[in-house]
Amino acid sequence: MRLSLLVLWFWTVHAAAVPPELQQVRNALKVNDVPTAERLLVAIIRRQPGNAEAHHLVGAIRFGQKRYNEAESALKKAAELNPRLAVAYLALSDVYAMEARAEQEHEILRRGIKLAGPHPALLLRLGVLEAKKGDLKSALARLKTIPPKSAPPGYWEALGRTHLSLGDYEEAEKAYSRVLQQDPEAVSTLRALSGIALKRGDEGKAWDYIAAARRAAPNSPEILNEFAQVSIVNGLTAEAVTALRLAVLMEREDPQYILALGNALMANQDYREAVPVFEKFLQLKPGEAVGELLLGEALRGSGQNEEARVHLEKAVVLQPGSAQAYYHLGMIAFAGTEDRKAEELFHKTLERQETHGPACLALGRVHLRRRENQKAVEWLEKAARLVPEDPNVPFQLSRAYAALGQRDKAQQALAVYTKLNAEREKRDQERLQSRYTSKRQGE
């Protein structure tokens, strides 16, 4: 039986000499001989009923045995005999936590700080409890009263979580970095730091942290999935695909990893490969709107428009508020020169998501094809505000301006297109290089 309270006791008295009468108890507990320790403690209490440490340890053992009423009695006796025995209050707080007696847990910790003084472990426990109750500012203020040199185990994680909950990402990163110094391969810490870096907008640093977590836990599907998501954010889509293929090999019937693999393949523009992945997802989760939508997108991306239409229409029935399903149905209609139908579908897209930039671009193209150039410009200018990184928007704008005889604007739009297109080609080249590297690594 592993008793965390006993470990805490050893940590507390580590710097001081163990009382002679408790040395045999300590020796028994070191080898996990709890029955012998218990027998020795009962004998000590008979001889020395005022021995607070003995009562505390009996309470700790009773707690480990889930004999909570007896544990509470013994621990209260310990605190009564020695009001400055901080570990007795900590142990009592564990009893109350186990029995969901939140108010008593909070009160015993406050009482312990009042009587035993500002013991770091008591301050930490109370700060964590306050944070759980949502009183984050009080929790942070309490945690900051603990001198860093006296920080008990778990302090820096608690401080980091509290800063993170308050949205102070810089301080949260500092706290978690202290944890990482102690254990450079702590996966939970690396994951937390990766998330913080993403919130701070540092995608590269986020990838470094999650890549380290992947190295530390190479057989964790959960970590592989997180690594893949951060890789996609960094444009490393082939890396994401490789990681998620491994995750799916480990968890062949888990729909979350199958769905993630399909999305990664789409991000890598491997639409044909994504089709059977989404089909597998729908086998596991039939009637799931997101599966129908994504399968429709993958089929459309691979040029199978009629098959795509079937699944996109199912997605609309299952989730009428889905803007994306209407958009792809509109693009299929546009490809079939069904302009009136396409226009109607794009407007339905915008009714559901008014900031849908690709739908604005598509409406601009519909009007441009009809030679309704002024309307085309209006929609394309709106698209330029919503999706400024898409080179197709300034390209279509240059055509619309030229059709209206606005040569200067047409030239300006063409220059923007040239710049954005060069940037896209560079990203595509990097993605292809990433794909090549990933394949070589897998050989």
How are the elements arranged and paired?
Layout: H1 4-13, H2 20-30, H3 34-47, H4 52-64, H5 68-81, H6 86-98, H7 102-116, H8 120-132, H9 136-143, H10 155-165, H11 169-182, H12 187-199, H13 203-216, H14 221-233, H15 237-250, H16 255-267, H17 271-284, H18 289-301, H19 305-318, H20 323-335, H21 339-352, H22 357-369, H23 373-386, H24 392-403, H25 407-442
Structure described in brief:
78% of the residues lie in helices and 0% in strands. By secondary structure, it is mainly α. Among the domains are: 117 residues, Alpha Horseshoe (Serine Threonine Protein Phosphatase 5, Tetratricopeptide repeat); 52 residues, no CATH class.
Describe this structure in words.
The structure is a single chain. The chain has helices at 4-13, 20-30, 34-47, 52-64, 68-81, 86-98, 102-116, 120-132, 136-143, 155-165, 169-182, 187-199, 203-216, 221-233, 237-250, 255-267, 271-284, 289-301, 305-318, 323-335, 339-352, 357-369, 373-386, 392-403, 407-442. The chain starts with a helix and ends with a helix. Residues 10-15 and 435-443 have low confidence and may be disordered. Among the domains are: 1-117, Alpha Horseshoe (Serine Threonine Protein Phosphatase 5, Tetratricopeptide repeat), CATH 1.25.40.10; 375-426, no CATH class. It is built from 25 helices and no strands. The longest helix has 36 residues, at 407-442. It is elongated and about 105 Å long. 78% of the residues lie in helices and 0% in strands. Helix 15 runs antiparallel to helix 16 and helix 21 (339-352) packs antiparallel against helix 22 (357-369). By secondary structure, the protein is mainly alpha-helical.
